[in-house]
Amino acid sequence: MQTNMRKEINEIPEAAARLLENSASAVTAAGKALRERDPQFFVTVARGSSDHAALFLKYAIELTAGRPVASLGPSLASIYGAKLKLGGAAAIAISQSGKSPDIVAMAEGATKGGAISIALTNTLPSPLADACTHSLDLSAGPELSVAATKSYVNSIVAGLAVLAEWTGDSDLDRAVKTLPEQFAKAVALDWSDLAGDLKDAQSLYVLGRGPGLAIASEAALKFKETSGMHAEAYSSAEVLHGPVALVGPSFPVIALAARDAAEASVTGMADSLADRGAYACVTAAGAKSARKLPFVATGHPITDALALIVPFYGFVEAWSRGKGLDPDKPVNLKKVTETR
Ligand SMILES: O=P(O)(O)OC[C@H]1O[C@](O)(CO)[C@@H](O)[C@@H]1O
């Protein structure tokens, strides 16, 4: 019998298509509000997979719109009661459930502080949607597996749709609209060869750059959640500032290169680690020494990174089962994590 996680990975293409269809008017409204406000900077409010979606959108906004984006620690509002001055800013709050108290408190604080605030949530109505000036229904459908998959992908698709609408970036808009078909190709990719390569590892790094770092962060979290595998995400530049000392034959590296300006540097990093005797693999056709992982080239530098998570999800779900674990029920976790 298929796990819920596997079923939900298979649903990613249709969930993205449903989101794009259902959210058209909310995307238009949020884009219009951003054009009117012309925010000089953004803040994000999110935790876990949603925070990795926020990191992806941070790079996408900075690269596309040239506005800096900062991640807020929710304790600023929920514990410290800090009053942030966010006039002239926009806030993006992301949560599948829309109800973790600290996320809601921080989103409320951002709205009260003067930000135009956009909730990206799979649950409407929800306290998070109520706390924000705008909300978008992620339309991912019920997500029963504790490990988020389709809601993570749809959080990013929703944010990119708003970004394209706000900035009038027609290339990005076209790329977002083709995502359901790109995801359908990505669902069919097979990374199962990795299982044998990683079997002796106790720990590993997932590397990326730009939007790919957000995908690497999400992949590292999923290794921990579903497979009891210690994994950390690093920028392929940051890892050189110390952490690379741990890499070796039994401390592998998975490098997630997208077809963007960072492709050569991420691939070069994977090749140089492989040349030094480490196990390294990379999503790049031009890799010389690192093992090549298959990927879908979406034709747009930002959506290209997003498509990388789909075959990874498929791999990690199977790997978890192969270890005798249930990826739907990670140890010590519940579907809705409420923090304060
Ligand atoms: O101060 P808090 O609420 O514990 O949150 C800190 C965390 O919040 C984030 O900024 C967003 O989740 C993380 O990067 C950081 O670790």
Structure, briefly:
The protein is of the alpha/beta class and 340 residues long.
List keywords for this structure.
10 strands, globular, 15 helices, binds 6-O-phosphono-beta-D-fructofuranose, alpha/beta, 5-stranded parallel β-sheet, Rossmann fold, repeat, 2 domains, 340 residues
Gyration radius over CA: 19 Å
Write the element-wise H/E pattern from the N-terminal end onward. HHHEHEHEHEHEHHHHEHEEHEEHH
Number of helices, counting only DSSP H or I runs of 4 residues or more: 15
Share in β-strands: 5-15%
Small ligands present: 6-O-phosphono-beta-D-fructofuranose
Q: Pairing-aware structural class of the strands and helices?
A: alpha/beta
Return the CATH topology of the largest domain: Rossmann fold
**How many separate domains make up the residues?**
2
Low-confidence stretches: none
Helix content: 40-55%
- Reading off the top of the CATH hierarchy, the class of the largest domain is best stated as Alpha Beta
- Shape type: globular
CATH architecture of the largest domain: 3-Layer(aba) Sandwich
- Compute the average pLDDT: 96
| Spatial gap, N to C terminus | 37 Å
User: Main sheet, how many strands, which sense, barrel?
Assistant: 5 strands, parallel
Strand order of the largest sheet: 2-1-3-4-5
Domain SIS: 30-173, 194-330
InterPro entries: GlmS/AgaS_SIS (IPR035466), GlmS/FrlB_SIS (IPR035490), SIS_dom (IPR001347), SIS_dom_sf (IPR046348)
GO molecular function: carbohydrate derivative binding; transaminase activity
Protein name: Glutamine--fructose-6-phosphate transaminase
